[in-house]
Design brief:
Blueprint (H helix, E strand, L loop, with lengths): L2 H5 L4 E5 L4 H11 L9 E5 L2 H8 L8 H17 L15 H9 L5 H13 L8 H10 L4 H7 L3 H16 L7 E4 L2 E4 L4 H8 L2
Parallel strand pairs: 1-2
Antiparallel strand pairs: 1-3, 3-4
Helix pairs in contact: 3-9, 5-9
Length: 201
């Protein structure tokens, strides 16, 4: 059986948070792949801060030396891969509302919302935690504001994001982006190639 047919029974789970610059870079790398339409990519939104808390991890954003290196590293990766990227001056922010929002909206517009949130934050240098900017994202995606704002406060949605984050922790996932293929964990944008090797094997 051709490998491309075998792959249709597989998936790459992509664990992400909009505040993660490496998640943004990984996604842009995926989109640029010649075979990206053959990849069964499953998006798994998580709250990165919550995941770090569960694992007792201090994020690089709260360490000045790590933060400086992360900024420089992201810019190097972006340049190397011809990705339009701008470090966000408001990093880090609280992404809770938008991560819940991804779970609220209709499946047909999830990718538009996904792309817009990522591009606003990591390409346009916009603070996506501000109400006016969230409203701008909703307008671009033709999402009804009141329904969205009501949805992100729904206990079922709150519990769903919490469960996704807890499930990631139980799988020994500790950061974003993380790719899971055949129950194997590949952490970081620089491990995308390894995840793809596993997927297409």
């Amino acid at each position: 059986m051709p490998k491309t047919q075998v792959c249709m029974t597989k998936s790459i789970e992509f664990y992400f948070d909009f505040i993660s610059p490496y998640s943004f870079l990984a996604y842009k790398k995926i989109k640029s792949l010649p075979q990206n339409e053959k990849i069964n990519l499953i998006y798994r939104p998580i709250l990165l801060g919550g995941l770090h808390n569960l694992g007792g991890i201090t994020a690089p954003a709260f360490n000045k030396r790590k933060m400086k290196n992360m900024k420089n590293d992201c810019e190097l990766v972006a340049k190397k891969n011809n990705i339009n990227f701008k470090w966000n001056e408001k990093f880090p922010i609280n992404s809770l509302q938008l991560m819940r929002g991804y779970l609220v909206i209709d499946d047909k517009i999830k990718m538009k919302f996904f792309d817009t949130c990522f591009d606003y934050y990591w390409k346009e240098n916009i603070d996506i935690a501000k109400t006016k900017n969230i409203e701008s994202i909703l307008n671009i995606c033709a999402i009804e504001k009141d329904s969205f704002l009501s949805g992100v406060q729904n206990q079922k949605i709150k519990d769903e994001l919490k469960k996704l984050t807890n499930d990631a922790f139980e799988k020994d996932i500790f950061g974003a982006p993380t790719f899971v293929v055949n129950n194997k964990i590949f952490w970081g944008q620089d491990r995308l190639e390894y995840a793809l090797d596993e997927y297409f094997s």
